[in-house]
Specification:
The complex is a heterodimer of chains A (323) and B (334). Chain A has helices at residues 83-92, 129-139, 158-165, 182-186, 201-213, 256-262, 297-302; strands at residues 6-16, 21-28, 41-48, 53-59, 70-75, 98-102, 105-106, 116-122, 143-149, 169-173, 193-199, 221-225, 237-241, 246-250, 280-285, 288-289, 304-306, 311-312, 316-320. Chain A is of the alpha/beta class. Chain B has 334 residues and is α+β, with helices and mostly antiparallel strands. Classes of the chains: A alpha/beta (323), B alpha+beta (334). The A-B interface holds A 1-2, 4-5, 35-38, 40-41, 64-65, 102-106, 109, 111-113, 219, 270, 276-278 and B 40, 84, 91, 94, 158-162, 208-209, 212, 214-217, 271-274.
Chain lengths: 323, 334
């Protein structure tokens, strides 16, 4: 695949939804229609303050198919590895500024055949569902949404969802002692139900674990991480590219992909959370520490690696450039 | 009662010098093997078949008439769509109308005001106002109505549960396959008969590629076989009518009988439904037309010489390969 074509959009509105979550409305800088999209899509964004470059992905929210503008909701992270990008968006991007985005991609679509759709969100993981919900309502499908967040002030969009989807929505406010139980949500769902989870790693693990235990087919369980898996146990290592006679250090707080981009070796990428497989490379030497969710057993065996999340067990990984 | 479909040749498909010049000759080397061989679609040089995403050429009217004939005789097996594909149908209509109107403003006009659309096709004298998303405002379903106004066949694939399903199509000009038979199949299932490529992992890679197709980044590839006579309708259902012609091909008549049949296949992401468009635009060139380009004639001869027997058999060339090679040797124009 070639690298993705970028499009310049103008920020036409910003709005603080909660103290930590800001909604941005984006329109084509030249006034053209934006590409159509399906619910569950994200756009990748290239952000720069002149010194640093960040590439982050954000779910499109709102009515799918809206092409006059796109909307995203960004949580300002304090400690996460991607903090630079979200902090930059919050503090330095204002109405009238331009940004660079790719075309929408979708690695979290609805399964059109499902008898019923159960959506489970944790925190800012609510964003892809802000497009799925209007799509489900429009299609007349059977659905319910479960949304867990810490407190009423910080829970983004819950009042809006309560108003629009009241009887189809349940809210779990952890500070008030209300906890979401994956097993309780999944119990007694009709045969043919699909479940979709977006949120922290632990929530995804809890729902997929409960679904597996209750005998749900894996094909009926869909999840999207809104951030790459935690890298707290990471150590720095080196990536060696023999074709370019280049060696790049991958720091604790960056990915192979980011380190290569920093070194001026652009690799095509899309989701940047280990799901789409676009940034795949071939391992020629060293032992990979796989953290992706897209490679098959066979591909792992062939020595493929997903560079936006996976790392190295050891000091050095030798990689071939994509063909 | 089922109508009995006739497979007919279309004599008006003879190519002008211009059509021969822009023919999508599929071989870039002297040997042939299966590969995914994808290039960006609709981004070729001006005046080539790949200049636009949907190619319109001098055979527009002949193909429209031939498709109308086939559909009037055999509609039930040529236009099939499953109920969940309606959104993908509107995707197809939007993509085809916007591209055609931009590429051929002298032939097509599209005006959009929110969901109220106005379409004009000057080639066929069609004027239509309709509401985007409301099938009751069109004379036919979007895929059939728009597909009939274009050249080529159109398949819409649903992407779900880690696979691609052939769930809708308007297929009147298939190269020995059947939409009725393949409808609802997964990607690997409908490619099941292709030899050699499965162990090579071609379809696993191709499927992964298709499932990651990006909006506004369509791709194209060329596929080829031989067809006897200027015949677009070569479905599995009518094999008894066209298959027998192959045995009549000799080294003497191959130049007038045998046509190189090239499919320019486009693969594009359908943005609203997250489905995939697979379109098959078929080009025919008579062997003696092709041989007016000595480079093409020489290369085709070398490809046939090196063709593995499994592929020769799968493409249905066993009866004709020798005769074509001999004809090409005797008719080298250089």
């Amino acid at each position: 695949m070639t690298s993705r074509p970028q499009r310049i959009v103008r920020v036409t509105q910003t709005e603080l939804v909660t103290p930590c979550v800001k909604r941005f409305t984006l329109e084509d800088a030249e006034g053209r229609r934006l590409p159509s999209w399906s619910s569950g899509s994200h756009v990748s964004m290239t952000l720069s303050d002149g010194e640093h470059i960040w590439r982050n992905s954000y779910s499109l929210i709102g009515t799918p198919g809206e092409t006059r503008f796109y909307q995203i909701a960004v949580r300002k992270e304090d400690l996460s590895r991607t903090k630079g990008g979200s902090q930059f968006l919050h503090d330095q991007v204002h109405s009238g500024d331009t940004l660079e985005i790719g075309a929408p991609s979708n690695y979290f679509p609805l399964a059109r055949h499902a008898a019923k759709h159960v959506l489970i969100a944790g925190g800012i993981g609510i964003t892809p569902f802000l497009a799925h919900l209007p799509a489900l309502r429009r299609s007349g499908a059977s659905f319910e949404v479960h949304y867990a967040f810490r407190d009423r002030v910080g829970g983004a969009f819950w009042e809006q969802l309560c108003g629009e989807y009241g009887t189809y929505a349940r809210f779990y406010v952890s500070e008030e002692g209300s906890r979401l139980s994956a097993a309780a949500v999944l119990a007694h769902q009709p045969l043919g139900t699909h479940v979709y989870v977006c949120g922290p790693h632990l929530l995804i693990a809890a729902v997929s674990g409960a679904a597996a235990e209750m005998g749900w087919p894996a094909s009926h369980v869909h999840f999207e991480e809104f951030a790459p898996p935690p890298v707290s146990d990471s150590a720095p290592f080196f990536v060696h590219l023999p074709e370019l006679s280049l060696e790049v250090k991958v720091g604790v707080r960056e990915t192979i992909l980011e380190a290569l981009e920093r070194a001026g070796v652009p690799i095509a990428s899309s989701c940047r959370v280990g799901q789409c497989g676009t940034c795949e490379m071939q391992v020629l030497g060293g032992e990979a520490d796989h953290r992706d969710r897209c490679l098959s057993e066979g591909e792992l065996h062939e020595g493929k690696i997903i560079t936006c999340v996976s790392r190295c067990r050891g000091q050095r990984l030798t990689l071939a450039l994509p063909g | 009662m089922t109508m009995i479909l006739e497979s007919k040749t279309v004599p008006s498909l003879r190519n002008s010098a211009e059509a021969m010049r822009r023919f999508p000759f599929p071989f870039s080397t002297d040997s042939y093997g299966y590969s995914v061989n994808l290039t960006p679609a609709g981004q070729g040089e001006a005046g080539t078949y790949n200049e636009h995403l949907f190619d319109i050429d001098e055979h527009y009217r002949a193909e429209f008439d031939e498709r109308r004939r086939i559909l009037s005789e055999d509609h039930g097996r040529r236009y099939l769509t499953l109920p969940h594909m309606m959104e993908a149908q509107w995707d197809f209509l939007e993509m085809s109308m916007t591209h055609l109107a931009a590429a051929y403003p002298e032939s097509f006009t599209l005006r959009q005001e929110d969901d109220f659309w106005h379409w004009e096709n000057y080639l066929l004298g069609i004027t239509q106002d309709f509401t985007f998303g409301d099938p009751s405002t069109l004379p036919l379903e979007p895929l059939e109505w728009m597909g009939r106004q274009m050249q080529g066949d159109f398949c819409l694939l649903d992407q779900r549960e880690g696979d691609l399903y052939l769930d809708a199509g308007l297929v009147t000009f298939p190269a020995d396959w059947s939409l009725t038979f393949d409808l609802g199949m997964t990607f690997e299932e409908w490619h099941g008969p292709v030899p050699l490529a499965h162990p090579a992992g071609v379809f696993t890679r191709a499927k992964k590629f298709l499932m990651n197709l990006e909006i506004d980044q369509p791709w194209q590839r060329l596929n080829w076989t031989f067809t006897i006579g200027p015949r677009l309708e070569t479905s599995s259902e009518t094999y008894h009518l066209w298959g027998r012609d192959k045995s009549g091909v000799t080294a003497e008549n191959a130049g007038e009988q045998v046509h190189l049949r090239v499919e320019a296949q486009v693969l594009a992401r359908l943005p609203r439904s997250h489905g995939v468009l697979f379109s098959i635009r078929t080009y025919l060139i008579r062997l003696d037309e092709l041989a007016t380009n000595p480079e093409w004639a020489q290369r085709l001869g070398r490809v046939l010489e090196s063709l593995p027997p499994e592929i020769t058999d799968y493409k249905g060339l066993t009866d004709t390969r020798e005769a074509v090679m001999t004809w090409l040797k005797h008719n080298q124009l250089d």
